[in-house]
Amino acid sequence: MNRKLTAGVIAGLLLTPTAIANAQENDAQPRVMTQTEQVAPVMTVAANTAKEQIIARLGKLSENSTDDEMAIAKEDLIIVKNSSDFDFTEEELIEAKYNYIKEQRRLLGELKTIGDSINAISYTSKNFLQEVTNAKDKYEKFLGNAQQEKSYLYVQDQFRQVIVEALENGEEALVSAIRGTTLQYGYDETGRNNYFKGKGFDIAKLVKLENDATAVNGATDTLDAFVTNANADYETVLNALNAITVAYDVLTPDQKKAVAAYHPADATITPYKQYTDVQAKVGAASKVAISIADLEKKKPDDFKTATNFTSAVAAIEKSYNALDETLQKWVTNYDTFKPYQEAADISKRIAALRVSSDEAYRTEVGELDTKYKALTEKAKEFVKNVADLEQATTNIAAAKSIEALIAAIENESNKVEAIQKAREAYDASSNHKDVKKIVNNLATLVQLEKDYQASLKVEKLITELDPASTTFEKKTLAAYAAFEKLTENEQKFVKEAEQLKLFYKYAEASKQANALKPTASDYQTKLAEVKVSIAHLDATGNAAKAALDAIKVQLDAKIEALENEDVAVAAVITQIDALNGSSKLVEDMLAARTAYEALPTSAAKKRVTNIKILTDLEKSHKTVVNVVSLFEKLDTSAKNYLSKAKSAYTAYNKLAAADQVYVQNYNGLNDIVKVTEVVVQINALNPSKKTYKDDVKAAADAYTALGVTLQEQVVNYTDLTKAQGYVDTAKAFDDRILALANENPETFVSTIATLSADYKAMDKNAKKLVEQAKALTTYEKDNKAVIKVIQMIDALNPTSKDYTKKVLAARKAYNALDEVAQKRVTNYANLTAVEDVASLIGLIASLKPTSKTFLEDLKTARELYEGLPEEKKQAIINYDALVAAENEQTTAAGVIALIVLTEEQDADYLTKLMNARVAYDQLSSNQKKLVTNIKDLTTREKAVKPILNVMVQINELDPEAKNFVSKVNSVRKAYDKLTKDQKKYIDNIDVLLKYEPISNVVNLISKLKSSSSTFLQETSRARSLYDALPTDMQQYVTNYYLLEAAEASILGAGNVMQMITDLPSIDPKQYVKRVQEIRAAYNALPKDQQRAVQNYKVLQDQEKVVKPVIKVVEDIDRLLTAKDMNSQYQKILKAYDKLDGDQRRYVYNDQLLLSLDNVIKVYNNIAKLNPKDKFYFGMVEAVRKEYDSLNSIDKQRISNYSILLEAEKGMADVKKVVEMIAALSSTSSSYIEDVANAVAAYKTLDAKVRSQVINEDVLKQAEKDVATVLKVVQAIGSIDPDSSNFEKKVLDAEKSYSALSLEQQDLVYNYRVLEEYLKMIQ
């Protein structure tokens, strides 16, 4: 056939429209030529047409052809080989093309498999290095060379040779027609790599993996060397750690993941995990050493206060003590730290000094002074509060000087002058508040001063009068009454008598004004008289004129207010009358009710004669009015405030929507309900309930859960504190009863008496909680007669009306005892000491500063006391009350001075405020009334509150919290509201300054909106602010993915499409986050760009894939905080098992889940511990070993560790009881006491573990034996030789003794007494 014609026909076929070509293919496809057809004579044109069709089909054949097309091509090849229409070159080209395409399809399948295996390689796989090596080997084998049969390069070269040979023979047209677009054989390496990439194999990824594997190999070699030398000395370990760190730090993030996952087959944990564990330990020791070195570098001036220094030392001590013994040895400079510890100890002890007249205070100051002087000169400089020690030493010396003056008064001839001298020295002491507290014989001086004439007492009362004080009226009337009681001569000594008389006029007028009652029949007459009295008041020429004039103004105002009451009543009546024609009835009705309730007194309300009109209208609008009334009557100071608030809120919710409009003060009720719930919980506390202690704790927890503002509204909080007090009191009392088992026999009876008295005096609620009450009752019965006398003596109460009668009764009961029993009355001296002074004690006890006869009674008590001999004076047990009554003003003055000190806002300002508050709270109610500047203290305390609030808010900042930005903004606003002086006390402001840039970035990112006109600028600004953050702070930008999404959205839909396209190449551990980022980027696109994302369906499909993955990831994150870790763990495993292979690869925190086997095992074993189990203690010890085998991190994950500790404590207690029982010996002289101790110890055991006491039966038998023996002992002890039934009791006792076993008889310690009695009756 002519070559040119063939080429022209082929070219013509190639240019034929697609429809014709398809039709030809359809005609040719179903035909399978038979041998007969091949040899049948046909027309030349028909033959040429078939040949051209075969060549055309072969020209279209490529590696992308379908299986059907390959089958047709195979049949065409058979036709070609059996046809004479094709020459040798044509046949050779067609066969080469078919074979090439067939092999190319096979090779591309292999290539896709290799590509998939590469994509499956994870940097977090423990076999990463081997997987990379395997992938590399497979690819090299696949590629091969031109000589390696079946390899990719061999197949390409074979086809290239056929093509080149045909071209060299001038068959360009034929080659072009048959070859078609199959040109891969001629690709260079770059073209080949790009071709492979389109077929599912990315050579760049393999190269990256190879490079990463090479880098990882170096780091893993270093890790292997470290593991080999893990037990070497400190320097070797440290050098090995540094080598690993150097090798690790230069790696990329992916390479670091591979290093962390590297896990040799023979290793129990990964080398990297072992490295990080050791590094953490070394870091902890190094941190302590560095802290010590830093402390050594600091100068004393670097610490502003002693607290700063002691805190720094305490922090180092805490860190050091937290190290184990090996790590502590690694802190090589610890010895240099000891001088600082000594200095810090002295500083803390100085700070803890509390001024007192006790000898212990002086001893402590002396010891501190000695220890301070023993410090090195450098260490002394760090004791920042040494001035306090020096001041304390000076104060003690001054106090001793005053004490000497007071002691010398007794021997002075001129005692008055001596008293004045001692008093002047006491009052003139430089640092008076501390020196005065140290003086220990002040009572002596006060006692001597009381010997002055009665006129001095009145004079003192007058000098204390202050017209500006709220107690002026009361004190003036009291002073005048005292003045009136003086004799005429005594009154002459009162130098301020005229002043008193003037003050009395004002006080009497005030008294009369306060006594006015509008409901009285002579009210108007009395009102007129008081007005006249007030009008005659005149303080001209008096030094207190301004204050007295103020009293007069107040009295005038009071009278005016009373006169204005009529006006107010008339106004209410008018307001009620106007209701009949009101268009706003409910509002006016409420206003009328408010006006009525606002009347100052109940008497004024009674004068509203038309109140029935208002009440009738309220009845007709009862529901609405009741609710409004409930709200408006709420009074936070009322006892039933909270219950009424809750009722009001309930009633409000029941109203119809239209009626709720009338209720104008609904705000705030929700908080009241919350508070009410806590109040109800507190009110429900019942000591009779078995769950009382748990109820108290629950109420306390509920109270704590309230905010500070709401806590202030819990009006019965004191009941909660009382309840806690009951629990603590009962616990302490139980401990005292249990301690009786070890009580000294000499003090045994007195101790029981004390306990009995304390128990009777105990609050009934606390009594209900005392678990050992029955044990105390048993003791009391055994010592009943003696205890009764002791209790009678202890019960003597000088304040009791029948005190004398009780003293006589105690004496009678004592005399009724026998001689032996009388010796057991350990408090008999108390009875003899008070018999002749009982009346005086009662008189002193009845002294009350508020009593009108207080001064006269005080004088009488003093005279009676002075009439007693010196030894009798010591028996006045409440003498301090006599002295205290005269010292109230002095005590109050000390508090006033403390408050004055708070005027200066220095470094100790907060401490001074606290000291003043503590001192004030310790005053009695009468003393508190004398503190005139208490408002200054409360005002300053309020000013300090914002400072503390800001410091607490800064400390609570957490950059990982969801509300981090709002918290930062809130703190900044609170800080900015502080004054300049307040801000200087904020010592943690650096924390806020560190977190504000992070907050700004997070806030800016959260506000990015693609619809905003400034979206581009704001995104750029957010990127700049983020990049400006320190690297370690960037991790806290929790919405960084939104910034990336915003940046991605700027690039448009094309970028999002590329991101979706690149999903298969994403690291599986980053896959979930990447899908979320793509979603965020897509959502940030404008609607028109979203529609342009052609592969959006792929994103939706992948979101469905990762949805269960996200649930598993979140559950794993919450696993360690789950209430039931095992249940949560099993739940996660089930969910994890449901994931397919790809989904599991996406669970980026699965290492945590898969590493918790040992943790869950220990957790479950702890949960299974059951005291009823026969092998309970063995299980406890086994669980302890399992727990100790965990590393430090896994130990912290055992959330029920406290159960193990409790079990171990129970085990220790049981072992102790078992040992006590095993040690019991009936031959021991203390056997009975030993049995009692063992029984007491057994009863203190938790009921759940008592079954573990293996020798419990021995104890019960011993307890039974002792009880039997004690009955015989008591029978012998109760025998009275003078009794008429003496002989019968002796015989009964002898019979009971004979019934005992020999071992029991040896325990009857008073048998000799019985023997003597038997001799007497024989």
TrEMBL record:
Signal peptide: 1-23
Coiled coil: 372-422
Domain of life: Bacteria
The protein's name: Cell wall-binding protein
Key words, A-Z: Coiled coil, Signal
